Amino acid sequence: MNFESDRVSVREKICYAMGDASANIAWRGVAAFLFIVYTDVFGLNPAAVGTLMLVARLGDGISDVAMGVIADRTNTRWGKYRPWMLWSALPLGVMLSMLFTCPESLSMTGRLVYAYVTYIVFTLVYTAQGIPYGALLSVMSADDKERTSIGSYKMVGAFAGGMLVQGLLLVLKEYFNSYTIPIYILSAVLVVLMPITFFGTRERVEPPKDQRNDVLADLKQLMVNVPWIVLLVVSLLYNVYNSVKQGITIVYFTHYMNRELLCATYMTALMLASVAGAAITSPLARRFGKRNLFVGALVASGAVNSLLWFCGAADVTAIFALGVVSELFAAIFPTLCFVMLGDVADYSEWRNGRRATGLIYSATSFAMKFGGGIAGLLIGVVLARYGYDGKVAASIPGAIPGIKMLMSWIPGVIAAATAVVMALYPITTSKMDQITADLLARRNRE
Hints:
Largest sheet: none
CATH class: Mainly Alpha
Number of helices: 17
Structural class: mainly alpha
Number of strands: 0
Radius of gyration: 21 Å
Shape: globular
Order of helices and strands: HHHHHHHHHHHHHHHHH
């Protein structure tokens, strides 16, 4: 097979990765810090915060699918998906800043309303960036192995952006004695980085020339696309797993270990492990196959993470070691997932003669974000069950068991369930090679 026309330069891969570096300043910042900002700064009840996150993510379902349809039907001289990187950069930076701005003059009810409005608008803007960005990967090359390489760069960029926000935010918060100014600074960085993807990438794969513009046909075929259904459920469960871990970490270090600033070092160490995990994903996928690697990484990450239950507050070395190893395996999940969505788009075109890349990514993106909403609700319900109140020091000792559970074996159980579902994924390496070859021959005839 000759895919020379679909080779993507290292420079272009890096430019694509800058989009995820930018988006993850927002995504990781919200996932890691917004819960504690809402409880310890805004003063909101943890169960109310959890409900807020779930409700907002439910609304994402409609917006994600709508954005997928819009992106697939966007036609400009720059392509379908690239322009959204330029259009969404400033609004996303503004909304991220507003999320972390506490309206001091408002009552508690007013603060909750403010949180609902800003969080929902933030998710809408994030959707306008995230859906086209994810779909862009699958149209940069028709070669599934080349997409795996692009996916590795993508996730290195994602983890680099996460490292920036998770490593710097607490340090800057210590300096400014506030989350507000640090998040303004990081939002500005986000706005600068995202357009690099627009200017530095190309779209190469187009839908079949005879494909009619039929949203109902796209949706109907998606509902019987078994590989996509499996990835949809896996994306939901994985993001519950990942978001519980991210959301509880700052609470764990602040109230269990009593070492808030050390959390920045811990999260930076996890980001470095994530970069390493993303970097080794491509060669490991070639060696073991995507599905097998996915299942093995899930089991290993969840099992190692569960061992954190046995760590005392002073066991810093053990906590770091277990967290880093678990994250090394966990980094393989998102790297493979986005690549495999490109495979699913190819599978749809191969089997049905229709390619709805944006719709495939949008529906899966909803599952990912809804998983984050379920995680937020789970954290809120568990902490509320144990009487957690971030503004009342006397409530913390009673909440410690709940904090430890959320940091250790609860995510481990979720990872195990995700592995069981992933084992049902039907596209093997040999099957994907056949699909790729058939599509190449079909496109050459057009």
